[in-house]
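User: Structure please.
Assistant: Input sequence and predicted structure:
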Amino acid sequence: EQLCAAPWFCGTDFTYADVIVACTLIHTHLLLPQIVPPGFYPKLHADARTCEALPAFRTAAISANETMPSA
């Protein structure tokens, strides 16, 4: 969290790190939301929300007919 830059995780450029952080937080939130509550890492969650707003993320998002494996 202390190493987070702006506007992206590693600075001014969107990188693979942003994808990994966003996907990890999104997946964790879907399966085990109590593990990383939204207020615990505000910068990381903001990065994930920014990624989720990108057209490519919206296109690849889990649809209503897909299910997540149980933990």
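Helices lie at 16-31, 42-52, 55-60.
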